[in-house]
């Protein structure tokens, strides 16, 4: 069920403010996990190629990204969660004219590699407010890297292939997870407390829910159906 | 302000408001209908520039030509998949809010999924050269077009000069020409190759990287593409492309087709000759790497006109067009670009001496573009034209263009 249709950037900013106000002492407390499953029943076609009117023939078959991939995250988290996470590295491949994975969730400070695994050139770029970049054109086997220093949603495109798009979700904390092929997720190490849990899919927050982790418990299960 | 101007400003504003939102989530692709079988895309562009007193930027249709730098264009394109092996594609365009015209409409078939052999039939994209297949405003780094694909020479398909004197008297006036033989009314000349109208016929592409070959058989010619044949002659055209690596593509092209309208040639005396063809050869190059994109093309064309009164036009009319274009990205969403082009014409002897049958022309265009959004591009350019004849010989102008696509 779709409870709210917010943009990720707006919700993330609101979550940051709330977290600062609700800042706790930051001491270590027993942590649990929030796990569950997200079932996407929405029909999201996403971005497809423009009609190839000027082409002289059929384009070669391309991979189709799995648009059911979702990101589940906490909107407000304890102050300790904002301590700078260790710089991480991740990769967003360009393979068969598709970005793989289609959705990448990282923490602030992460450097993402964009290798080109195709025979053709790609030109990865983003004009998102959270991170503007343009990597130019480079051949198979080469890679370029981008560091993401601000939280928010970054839409990634290829200038040459209009159907290629991906999302990089940059969080200021570590309490998020990307769903697997079965829609399962698990956010580990969550301190006891009351939180807003959100489900993001294809550019929008599709569902939010208030959850409570009690002291001494080892976690809760929360599943979503997004229609 | 006219109703037409208000209407297109309103349409442009509506699309801008729709697209330039804060991180619009799903406004980034074509409309997808019927479970993905039908995709509908579109492009809207508005270009403004001062009056072009020298008519350097006019393009000819059947009617009085338009100025490509003072134009509002809205186009819708669609692709309907008919299974794995076939699709119907089409595009309609409206310029300056006139009635929409069908720009493309064809059937695309790939009989064997594993083999790169494609067939297309209908109003099809041209196989010759490269620019005509990337003439969309979103693919063109500058508002203007290359001379070879736009500049109107003094030749027409429905009227011809009676003598060499009459032809050279029109030098530099291709935007509106009248001749004493054939259609009695004035009309625009033809460019070397018309990128604004696509021809009708069948085409085939074979090959796999790094080499591919495309050939077509169509109703019109490079200069004058047609839906209905006007002379019972067909044009055969082809392009051989070689991509030794992803950064480089080289192409060579050739075309030959009957140029003059049958209504005109039927009225000519037998001694005027026959075989009034347009023959063309071309070469194109594209190099891209990092933040650079460089394209170059050259196009040689020969038209054969009837030999009528004294001084008879015994030699064919040749022209050579060439341009070099480069784009460099300065930062995300911002680029600079430039294009230099020249169009020259062969000599023709007349009683007044020997001179080129049309006035040579050179164009320099420099500018840049800025993407407000992935689908909203603003371009600004300064263009200067030099011409060796005509009423206006030099002209500089500044043009701005906004392009929106989905």
Describe the structure.
The complex is a heterodimer of chains A (227) and B (406). Chain A has 227 residues and is mostly beta strands. In chain A, 6% of the residues lie in helices and 47% in strands. A five-stranded antiparallel sheet of chain A has the order 1-17-16-3-14. In chain A, strands 7-13-12-9-10 form a five-stranded mixed sheet. Chain A starts with 5 loop residues before the first strand and ends with a strand. The model of chain A is unreliable at 1-6 and 9-29 (pLDDT under 50). Mean pLDDT of chain B is 90; it is low at 22-27. Chain B is mainly β. Chain B has helices at residues 3-19, 147-150, 164-168, 262-265, and strands spanning 31-33, 38-48, 58-59, 66-67, 71-81, 86-95, 101-109, 117-123, 159-160, 181-182, 200-208, 211-218, 235-245, 248-258, 277-289, 292-303, 317-331, 334-345, 347-350, 353-356, 361-373, 376-387, 394-405. In chain B, strands 2-5-6-7-8-11-12-13-14-15-16-17-18-21-22-23 form a 16-stranded antiparallel β-barrel. In chain B, strands 3-4 form a two-stranded antiparallel ribbon. A two-stranded antiparallel sheet of chain B has the order 9-10. Chain B contains four helices and 23 strands. The chains are: A mainly beta (227), B mainly beta (406). Chains A and B meet through strand 9, strand 10 and strand 12 of A and strand 2, strand 5 and strand 6 of B.
CATH architecture descriptor text of chain B: Beta Barrel
Radius of gyration of chain B, in Å, reads 22 Å
For the record, the count of structural domains of chain A works out to 2
Give a short account of the largest sheet of chain A. Answer: 5 strands, antiparallel
CATH topology name of the largest domain in chain A: Immunoglobulin-like
CATH class of the largest domain in chain A equals Mainly Beta
Order of helical and strand elements of chain B: HEEEEEEEEHEHEEEEEHEEEEEEEEE
Mean pLDDT of chain B: 90
User: How many DSSP E strands of chain B?
Assistant: 23
Structural class of chain A: mainly beta
Can you tell me the CATH topology of chain B?
Answer: Porin
Distance between the termini of chain A: 5 Å
Provide the helix percentage of chain B: under 10%
What oligomeric state is this? heterodimer
